[in-house]
Amino acid sequence: MIQAVNLCKSFGNLEVFKDLNININRGECVAVIGPSGTGKSVFFRTLAMLEKPDSGQVYINGTDITGKDVNINKVREKLGMVYQGFHLFSHLNVMDNITLAPLKVKKMNKSDAQKKAMELLTMVGLTDKSLSYPHQLSGGQQQRVAIARSLAMDPDIILFDEPTSALDPSMTGEVLAIIRKLARSGLTMMISTHEMSFAQDVASRVIYMDEKGIYEQGTADQIFKNPTREKTRMFIRKLKVFSYSINSRGFDMVEMNVQIELFCQKYNIEPKKVNYIQLVLEELILEVYGDSSINLQLKIDFTIEFSEERNEILISFVYDGRSFNPFEAAEESEHLGMVLIYGVSKNYGYSFENGLNTININI
Amino acid sequence: MEFFETIVNSLCNNLIGGNAWLVLLNGLWVTLLISASGLLLGTIIGAILCAMRISDVGFLRTLSKIIIAFLRGSPVLLLLMVFYYVVFANSRIDAVYIAIIAFALNNGAHIAEIMRSALSAVDKKQLEAARMLGFSKFRAFLAITLPQAGRIAKPVYQNATINLIQWTSVVGYVTITDLTRTVNNIGARTGDPFFALFLGILLYLCLSYFVNFLFSIGSRKKEVL
Lengths: 363, 225
Hints:
heterodimer; B: mainly alpha; MetI-like fold; 83% helix
């Protein structure tokens, strides 16, 4: 249906994406997610040739539309686009907004076009607004009209570019409901969105864009429940990560604690937990360095992952050298430090692999 | 009663004596001719200059920038005199046509800027939305950008029109007998300049109101919304 092959696009020195490949089949609903600024919009605009790709091809129903001799207007008749900012024609009322293209581009006759527009307005629930002007409508209503305007051309595929991002939360529902209805009816669509639960619910395939291209893709369940790659996981779980490295026994623990505090303040982690984090880390560092048999130039890396969604903190603490499990060591002799760690952590684990000791602690 | 008689006398002297009203109508016609032609030609020139000003060709952009700066920056009276005494000094072109050319050029430069600012005020994404529906660039411009730009430009354009009409009162400098020159002549002849000049002001005022009326025809039904 629509296929991109080795698509590259950059603005000056800024490379947006490169060698992007995708193939979308008829009837699919593909959700594109990813942090802001990873080129979701540019990707959509490039598919519609609103931005010229630097290299690569876009095929629609098997024809390459990047060529010079392609009548792009003809192609776009079958390619709908719904924008974040609606962009209804502000000098025309709702009815004229919807019928303009069918009348002037498709040369439909007026009564047919209006009949069709009324059907679409019924579908989006705005029959009584047909004579209103865009500025008289709420954002949600404008977006529903924009969807109807796009549907009036009977497109093969619609690209929804963050259709609800400009709406306040009370209006996103009405727009999402329409899109959901369209997806169920089998319309091929791509939708870039920040509404994760919606994407999970509606999309037959989810694409996570990052690192100048498609970073990970799969079914909604795969991406949302079992993301395999690091950045996807961080994005889906809304993880905030703090990492820190210690290279010698003489490191600056005060500075480390200050940085941890700053990180925690930024994401509003409750003070009690901040204390726990610092406590656990200090004790672990002491345990590891306290074991006199280990190399003094021991290197420790730790990360603190904060999941906003679950309000959960995961500390992963990695150090090299020989296998040394402080939990086992603590069992042999009473260590006050380890007792403290048991006390504040929900669960913990230890593993040794390739010369690296890893301790994971949930708080 | 005496006051009333004075007015009637002045009226007769100024308007009827020596078929003055015919002369007056003639002056009015000349003013209207120069204004209307200047506006029409000016709009065409303005559209061309504006198209050059926003074109992709750097040379055309610079050229139109220079032309607009020159035409807008020079007083229209001087422009008129340069055309009359220098450029067309040896030709047999009627002074009225020279005036039309001068006013069209000056007005065109103003209109070009009016058009440009109106075009840049239109939401460009709407044009793009139209293109996504299958409109060609030109047809999307006609269907979306032009009507919206027209609506934005209208009040400024109306102002420019009234300004133009009033500025045509300087054409007397190059021997054209327009409305201003006519009322001046009548006043000189009858020795009653107050009445004649006041009549002139009234007539210009009427012209302005007439222009406002013409402009309001189109928008009246939209204001109801």
